[in-house]
Specification:
- This protein is mostly helical.
- The protein has one domain.
- The chain contains 5 helices and no strands.
- Helix 1 packs antiparallel against helix 5, helix 3 packs antiparallel against helix 4 and helix 4 packs antiparallel against helix 5.
- The protein is globular and about 40 Å long.
Length: about 100
């Protein structure tokens, strides 16, 4: 279970610079904090549930919530500054690989 929590922590830490990177020079309408908040909340809830009861059903629910979160981040890649796009996509790709490696 600690591995899952570590993966989630890494994803959250890696995402923080990108979540707040939208400024006045960024495309109009960028708001990671509001656009991805529902998915982040659902992921946190699913992780907590899975941590308390590591059943197959809870694992699958966690994986689904994690995938939804990554999809939401990917949908908002237009908010990323040009110089940060490669790092942003790399963080998403690493998170996807970690998710794909998770066995329920």
């Amino acid at each position: 279970m600690n591995q899952i929590q570590k993966i989630f922590a890494v994803i959250c830490i890696a995402a923080v610079p990108f979540l707040g990177s939208c400024g006045k020079d960024d495309p109009v309408g960028c708001s990671y904090l509001t656009e991805v908040q529902n998915e982040a909340d659902a992921l946190t809830t699913a992780l907590t549930t899975y941590s308390n009861d590591p059943s197959i059903a809870n694992c699958n629910a966690y994986k689904d919530a994690y995938q939804d979160y990554l999809d939401a981040l990917d949908e908002h890649n237009g908010c990323v500054l040009v110089g940060e796009q490669a790092a942003y996509q790399d963080a998403i790709d690493q998170a996807q690989a970690a998710l794909d490696a998770l066995q329920c």
